[in-house]
Amino acid sequence: MGSLSIWHWLIVLAIVLVVFGTKKLRGAGGDLGAAVKNFKTAMKEGEEDAPKTLDQLAQSGGKTASEARQHDEHKS
């Protein structure tokens, strides 16, 4: 009674197909795929932008958070 066999999963799949229909399931799968693709694209863009902002910070003479903490520790 602990785990479900392959037959249980096939029955559940058949019920889901009858209730929702293949068109809705296909649309939901497409939406999920598009969301994953957009997430990966955003992650790549974030990785590309991060070094640029650090370089800009260094050129402008700004301090990073760790540099500011070190400066504050040396003051006290």
UniProtKB/TrEMBL annotation:
GO terms for molecular function: protein transmembrane transporter activity. Residues 46-76 are annotated as: Disordered. It comes from the Bacteria. Keywords: Cell membrane, Membrane, Protein transport, Translocation, Transmembrane, Transmembrane helix, Transport. InterPro entries: TatA/B/E, TatA/E. One of its GO terms (biological process) is protein transport by the Tat complex. It is a single-pass membrane protein. Residues 66-76 have a biased composition (Basic and acidic residues). PANTHER family: SEC-INDEPENDENT PROTEIN TRANSLOCASE PROTEIN TATA (PTHR42982:SF1). Belongs to the TatA/E family. Part of the twin-arginine translocation (Tat) system that transports large folded proteins containing a characteristic twin-arginine motif in their signal peptide across membranes. TatA could form the protein-conducting channel of the Tat system. This is Sec-independent protein translocase protein TatA. The lineage of its organism: Bacteria, Pseudomonadati, Pseudomonadota, Gammaproteobacteria, Nevskiales.
